[in-house]
Structures are given as C-alpha cells and as structure tokens.
Write a structure and sequence with these properties.
Layout: H1 9-14, H2 16-19, H3 27-72, H4 83-102, H5 109-122, H6 126-139, H7 146-159, H8 163-179, H9 183-199, H10 203-215, H11 220-236, H12 240-247, H13 257-273, H14 277-289, H15 297-310, H16 314-327, H17 332-347, H18 352-362, H19 371-406, H20 421-442, H21 446-459, H22 465-479, H23 488-498, H24 503-512, H25 524-536, H26 540-553, H27 558-573, H28 578-591, H29 596-605, H30 645-652
Helix pairs in contact: 3-4, 4-5, 5-6, 6-7, 7-8, 7-9, 8-9, 9-10, 10-11, 11-12, 12-13, 13-14, 13-15, 14-15, 15-16, 16-17, 17-18, 18-19, 19-20, 20-21, 21-22, 22-23, 23-24, 25-26, 26-27, 27-28, 28-29
Length: 653
C-alpha cells in the first residue's frame, strides 16, 4: 500500500511557467526549483520502476508456483522462483536501496524497505529480509504498511525456523488484522499459524485456523488452499468420510479445473479406502465421462486400476495397468503403472523374471516419486536372475561330472567333463549369499532370505561371510518369533564359538551378556594398512614389498596369510606376472594350509597345467577383503564389497 504526501510537489508545478521565462530576477529561484523538480521526478521514477518490476516478478513467481502445484497436486508452501524473476528482484533491491541512500527522508522509504524485504524473502535471503522488516517496524511504527510487514516478518521467522517466535507474532497479528478489518492479511496469518500447528502435529488447531480462513473475506485462492488443507488433514488421519465431504466443498471456492479434478479424484480414493469399491469405480467413470477432465484420463484410469485391484479384480486391474504402461510410455502415469505391475508380479505371483522389466521401465523416468524404488528393485532382481543363471550353469556342470564319475563309459572318443567341484561349490555359496542379500535387503522377503542364507552357510564356512550370515539369521529370528526361523540365541552362540574374532561376535557377546574378548595388538596391522594405501595409489610393486615384509617378519600373524594372498593377487591382476602369482598361491597353501585364503586358492592350483584352459577352473579366488570391511555391520543393505571384489566379479564372469 503506497502513500502520497508530498507538500513540495504542488508549488513546484505552479512555478513551472517561470522556469522558461528568461527573467533574470527569478533565475536563481528558478534554478533551485528546477533542481528540486528533477530530483523529485527521478525519485518517483525510481520507486515506480522498482514497484512495477517487483509486481512483474511476483506475478511470475505465483504463476510458476501454481503450475508446479497443479502438476504435482501438492499444496506446498514453497515458492517456485524462476531465474528471470530472481534477476528482476535484484533490480528491485538495487533501485530501492538507491532511494534509501539518496532520499532517506522521503515519504516512500517504508515502501522501499518493504519491497526490499519481500525481494530478499523470495530470493531465500531470510536473514537480510528479517533485517528490513525490523527496520520498517522500528523506523515507521505508525506506517500503514505495518500490518503487511508483520505478516512477511512472520513468514521469515518460519523460514529461519524461529517457530515459537512466529506463533506469537502470528497470534497477535490475526487479532490485530481482524480488528482493523484487514481480513486478507488476517487470513494469510491464519494459514501460517495452521502450518505451524501442522508441524507440531496438532491437527485440531491446524483445522481450526484453516476453517477461519474459509470464513473470512479472503481471496478465492487462499480459501481453496485452506479448504484443501482441511480435507487433506482429515484424509491423513483416516477420517475418510469427513475428508470426502471436505473435498466436495472445493468447487465452492474455485473454478480451476485442475483443483476440481484433484478434489473429485480424492473423493474416489476416500470411497475406495472405505471398501466401497463399486461406488469408487462409478466415481472414476463419471470423471472419465466429464469432457473437462479429458487431459487427466491417464490418472483417472490409474486410480481405476488401483480400485479394481483393491476390490479383488486382479486380472482386470492388470489389463488396465498394461494399457497405461503402453499408452503412456515415458510419462509419470506410465511409470506408476509399470511400478504397480512389477509389484504385483513380485509380491503376488513371485514371478521375478516378469516383474523385473516392469521395474526397469518404471526407472526410466527420473522425475517420479517411485524412481529410486523402481531402480533399486530393477537392480536387485537383475542380480537375482543373473545369479540364478550362473547357479544353473554350475549345477549342470556338477551334474554332468557326477554322472560321468558314477557311470563310466567305454567310449574313447567321449570328452570327459573337467570340473573342480570345490571351486564350483565355493562359487555357488557366494551366489547363494548374494541372492539372500537381495531378499533380505531389497525385497524384504525373510522366508527366501533365510532359505538362501542357510544354503550358502551349508556350502562354505569362512571368517568373513559366515559370521555375517549367522548374525543376520539371528536378527531375522528375533524379528519374526512366530516363524520357523530357528532360535536367535543358538545363532549368537554359534557365532561366538566358531568365529570369536569377528566383529559380529563382539555384538553377539553383548546380546548374550558375555564378557568381551580381549583384543591383542598385532604389529603387522599397520604395515598391512600401509600396503592397502599403496594399492589404492596404484603403487603395486611397493605394496608387494610391504606384504613381503609382513610375511618375513610376522609369520605367525593372521596378516601373514592374507599378505601372501594379496601378493599373489597383485602379481596376477595388476603386475601381469601369472607365474609369480602361481608361485605365491602355492606358498600360501604350503605355509598356511589351515587359513581361509589357502582354502580359496587350493582349487586354483590343483591342476596348474589346465588352470588357464578350463574356464571354470580358472575363476579367480575371492580377493583379500580390506581391513575396514572385513566384518561389516549388519544393515538393511547388501554387504559392501571388499577392496578387490570388483576384480573377482570380472574374472568370475
């Protein structure tokens, strides 16, 4: 609201004829008046240009915000500020700052302060905005702009997370604004108060303030927004009948087709959630028949598919989703339909091969709310399917090998099947573990996770993977006491007995209330850590030197076998010296026969003459895990691969 109080303007206009008269008597006076006039014009032009620029920027911000809300159907309090609008706001700040500098006593200083504060707010410079609003209240406490400034100051307090201060300020403002008859500002203050109570999860107070907005003489946009909030709050607390009634009131306040559509669609959702499936279907049919909503056909049919599925008409639901998956490809609607199909095939049919392509298609659209979930599911199922293929291949080889052993043939031309059975079993154990991780961490299927973890444990026992499996099995048993997953205490006890040095054993001791195991300092550890750093820096030959130092000087340390293994691995995969690698693999087996690493490489050197010919026999053993991830914490995520794990996978493939 701008004021007009300029006592010098009228006299300056009355004296304009004398400015061009050429009378020497009035020349000095005329020059003075001319200077005042020019300054006044410049000052007014500066403010009006700033005000017009600000209004343009604010109109753009409101339009962009409305468009964003219409697209997502979210009643967000965030403003969308286009880049061009930000530039305009900077111009406003510069022009108004000039007014404050060159006309500090003019009657538009409070107007300029308010414009600067609002511009800073839209630019998310909240500290600067607060400073300007406070300046206005301190310098012009009786300004007609005070009520509006107090509103913007309260908004700024909210953004600065000074929420207690914001509630006090808004409570006072609503009372003062209503008393002064400034109902538009009072309504906006009630909205902000309702927001504060929503944040505090006091829905009753939030609804009370939103309801007051609807009662006041405020703009339709403000009333519509408040009415939506009321309906959404009832919906969020499953008061579905009341929510539907509140959504039905939306058309009273707006002619916006987008908002009316959203309200009516939400009514169908409320109806379906109450178990009234046929009534909900009838509502979606009405929406499809309404020509005003023809641009929302995909969303209507998506809701229709959900209602069909919820009502037990799964086949019809699948057909509807498949139509949307095809007709709305690369759109948000199509992505949501693809995700729902993936979910049905995964959860209900347990057909992971059928589910995977739907999740993959859903993950092609990065802008949807389900993008991350779809991508994670697609990756998980792809890993599961690939692992199953490899297991099937290994099982075929094992089967052919066993048949050959038990039924020898006299056919001299028949090619014998060459298989290293220990190596294949070791590979299968790793694959079983990977599949178990998919079911445990990504698909949340405890039955399948337990099945595959147990299969992995039965085939292979080592100091890295097995402790984690036992710990996870105990966790699953604890989480599902009603299922036949075994006794958690038994798993913890086995973990402590068989793998006393693992990180999981320490946690198991805490759970079982057993005394902690004393840790011994191993002087070889610091050398091993240094060697790992050298590997990461691609200084492989220096790393080999340190590993050799460990083997020579700390032969009884657990790091000795690990260092010998790392040396062989570096020779084979980083230094391209296969003969040196084979020599160190043999040293490992000879000197550290009982170690985990010796067990890993025995199949590798069992028949060195054929090691590079047999694609199965030459699969690389598992590389040495890094110190940091040797025993990971159990999380709802797949195990972090060890330092050299990626190389193992490449060779295995």
């Amino acid at each position: 609201m701008m004021k007009f109080s300029h006592p010098f303007l009228l006299p300056s206009l009355l004296l304009l004829p004398f400015l061009n008269s050429g009378c020497s008597l009035f020349t000095p006076v005329g020059e003075a008046i001319s200077g005042v006039y020019e300054n006044t014009v410049s000052y007014f032009n500066s403010y009006y240009n700033a005000k017009r620029t600000f209004d343009d920027a604010e109109d753009e911000i409101r339009a962009a915000t409305r468009a964003a809300r219409a697209k997502t159907f979210q009643q967000s309090r965030e403003f969308v500020v286009p880049a061009a609008s930000k530039q305009k706001l900077t111009v406003v700040i510069d022009k108004c700052s000039s007014i404050l500098s060159f006309h500090p006593t003019s009657s538009l200083v409070d107007n300029a302060l308010l414009l600067i504060g609002k511009s800073y707010f839209y630019q998310a410079e909240y500290v600067k905005a607060e400073r300007k609003f406070l300046e206005l209240s301190e310098q012009f406490p009786s300004s007609s702009l005070m009520t509006e400034s107090r509103l913007w100051h309260a908004r700024t307090l909210d953004r600065l997370k000074k929420r207690d201060e914001a509630i006090v300020a808004l409570t006072n403002l609503t009372a003062d604004a209503e008393a002064a008859g400034e109902e538009e500002i009072a309504a906006e203050a009630h909205v902000l108060l309702a927001d504060q109570y929503e944040l505090r999860e006091d829905r009753e107070l939030a609804i009370r303030h939103y309801s007051r907005v609807v009662e006041l003489d405020a703009g339709d946009d403000l009333k519509t927004d408040a009415q939506f909030r009321i309906a959404d709050l009832f919906f969020s607390t499953e008061q579905l009948e009341q929510a539907a009634a509140e959504y039905a009131r939306i058309p009273e306040f707006t002619l916006d087709v987008n908002l009316e559509f959203r309200a009516k669609l939400q009514i169908s959702v409320c109806t379906e959630r109450q178990g009234k499936h046929e009534e909900a279907l009838a509502l979606t049919e009405e929406l499809l028949q309404d020509f005003r909503f023809r641009d929302f056909g995909g969303l209507i049919r998506l809701e229709r598919a959900r209602i069909l599925h919820g009502g037990g008409r799964r086949d019809e639901s699948i057909e509807e989703y498949k139509f949307l998956d095809t007709a709305f490809v690369r759109t948000e609607t199509g992505a949501l339909a693809s995700f729902e199909l993936g979910n049905i095939y995964e959860k209900e049919f347990r057909d992971y091969a059928a589910a995977k392509p739907f999740y993959t298609r859903a993950a092609e659209n990065r802008t949807t709310s389900i993008y991350s979930s779809a991508q994670r599911k697609s990756t998980a199922l792809n890993g599961y399917l690939e692992a199953k293929k490899r297991i099937s291949r290994h099982d075929s080889l094992l089967s052919a090998y066993r048949d050959q052993v038990h039924t020898p043939t006299s056919d001299t031309l028949a090619s014998p099947v060459k298989v290293n059975e220990d190596s294949l079993n070791s590979l299968n154990a790793a694959l079983f573990y990977d599949i178990a991780e998919v079911f445990y961490a990504e698909l949340s299927e405890p039955d399948s996770a337990v099945y595959w973890y147990r299969r992995s444990l039965a085939l292979k026992s080592d100091s890295t993977q097995s402790p984690r499996i036992l710990f996870i099995l105990a966790e699953i048993a604890n989480s599902h006491p009603d299922r036949d997953f075994g006794n958690a205490g038994d798993y913890y006890k086995k973990l402590v007995d068989q793998y006393p040095d693992s990180k999981y054993a320490e946690q198991a001791r805490d759970i079982l209330r057993l005394p902690k195991k004393e840790k011994e300092n191993d002087p070889a550890e610091k050398f091993f850590i240094q060697a790992e750093s050298l590997i990461e820096a691609n200084q492989y030959q220096k790393a080999v030197g340190l590993f050799t130092t460990i083997v020579d000087n700390f032969s009884k340390s657990p790091y000795a076998a690990k260092s010998e293994y790392a040396t062989a691995w570096l020779y084979e995969y980083r230094l391209s010296k296969p003969d040196s690698a084979l020599a160190h693999y043999k040293i490992l087996v000879d000197r550290y026969a009982s170690s985990t690493y010796a067990a890993l490489v025995k199949p590798r050197i069992s028949d060195s003459s054929d090691a590079r010919k047999d694609s199965v026999g030459t699969l690389s053993p598992k590389p040495p895990p890094s110190r940091e991830v040797k025993d990971e914490e159990p999380k709802v995520k797949p195990a972090v691969p060890d330092t050299l794990g990626s190389e193992r996978r490449k060779v295995n493939e």
